[in-house]
Amino acid sequence: MTRQLASVIGGKEAAFGTPYDSINPARTTEVVARVGLADAETFAGACRVAREAQREWATVPAPVRGRVIASIGRLVEANTEALARLVTEEIGKPYAEALGEVREIVDTCDFFLGEGRRLYGQTVPSEMPDKNLFTFRVPVGVAAVITAGNFPVAVPSWYLVPALLCGNAVVWKPAEYAAASAHALYRLFTAAGLPDGVLNIVFADGAATFDGLSAALEEGTVDKVGFTGSSAVGRRIGELCGRHLQSPCLELGGKNPMVITPDADLDLAVEGALFAGFGTAGQRCTSLGTVIAHSSIHDEFLARYAAAVEKAPVGDPMGDVVLGPLLDRKFAERFEEYLTWIEPHHTVVSGPTGRITPDNPRGDFTGEGGLYYHPVIVDGVRPGDRLFMEETFGPIVGVTSYDTLEEAIELANLPGYGLSSSIYTNDPKSAFRFRAGIGAGMVSVNNSTSGAEAHLPFGGNGRSGNGSRQSGMWVLDQFTRWQSMNWDYSGRLQKAQMDVAEIIPDLDFRL
């Protein structure tokens, strides 16, 4: 029986709304869940409910909230296989990667469970006697969190866990094409004992979400917006929040470069480029965009890379494959547009392109009625090419060459994104020169462009975000605000910068 999923607000199911079918992209005739999409008023109403619930949640001691986060981690861990299978079924992510995604939730909970006892402020000395100064972290209030579906459970946890730990309530709008995975995660969170209304899940399309968010910001029921998605939509959300003097947490797209130096271990570089370019079918915000290989090793690297891609298994994501299907029909349509960006001066070195079908097979694999596409390597991309300058969400990687490291860094920065980057080299000087010159928020040395750990800051610059960071202690600044307090127990009014004792030095003294 097909799952029927509706929004849950204040612990109660909302009206079902407009039906939407979340399909299995590996077998597009299979419906994983039928989802009721809410309208803008439902989203705005959820924010009002969250506002009421947040006041009481904020009074729960932070260490107790930390124990709730610990319980979420244990519940997710106990349900790892079931949740990973659902992720694979709904978005086609290879099962091994889905298991890793679920592990990331557990790691995030394990990190933040102790932060409930470490939401430290400071006691600061005053310039006047009989007076103490303090700082406190306080919750922002209500967080509206909007997430993409390529990481339908891990990335939401980067927002939900710290937001809840810090005493905020959350209205979460997941991607509708990953609704079943999101609903399962919501149930695991609420099973940990969250009071009704502290975490709400709203299924809606993009237009209704934007209009509902706009209304909630106008009403003053949203205090922080977290968004993971495209740079174009992130820009609109940033503009909307800016009109209300709010700074959103934006985690956007990337055109992530990988520089390969003459002294690099080419086998290792090929392995990293294969995973970075084609894992999750190239549908990560940190997926490899362009390989920038030194001219002296360009041809050898390209030959090895093409051979590795040719051997990479594509197929049923429950099997041992590198690539499964694309996430959803809209991403398949968009990927076919990217293929039209291949120009006459480019060379496709990876074989066939387009959707895998009986008429366009990959070896013996004919696509099985799923949204499977041939992985594509395009050599000869140049600055100014759309394939070089713009994010291509899917299994396509461009390749170009360079002569000096300064030239490689300039090429790497040119598209204007700044999420992730990588360099393969055995020269420490080259590694540190690259780190200093690259504009990306994340740098890997002899590793792929993809891969995050729960205790490091995750986020980008330029077209990849507004400088906000997720994960680790740095995300606490997204979901708390600093409050200062001064306590004067002198029994008299002491005026700062005026009633200050002064010790006079003899500045003319000389030995």
From TrEMBL:
Q: Which UniProt keywords apply?
A: NAD, Oxidoreductase
Q: Which residues form the active site?
A: E251
Q: Which Gene Ontology MF annotations are present?
A: aldehyde dehydrogenase (NAD+) activity
InterPro entries on file: Ald_DH/histidinol_DH, Ald_DH_C, Ald_DH_CS_GLU, Ald_DH_N, Aldehyde_DH_dom, ALDH7A1-like
Q: Which SUPFAM superfamilies match?
A: ALDH-like
Q: What's its top-level EC category?
A: oxidoreductase
- UniProt domain Aldehyde dehydrogenase: residue ranges: 18-484
**Subunit structure as annotated in this protein's UniProt entry:** Homotetramer.
Q: What does the similarity note say?
A: Belongs to the aldehyde dehydrogenase family.
Q: What name does this protein carry?
A: aldehyde dehydrogenase (NAD(+))
User: What organism is recorded for this protein?
Assistant: Thermostaphylospora chromogena
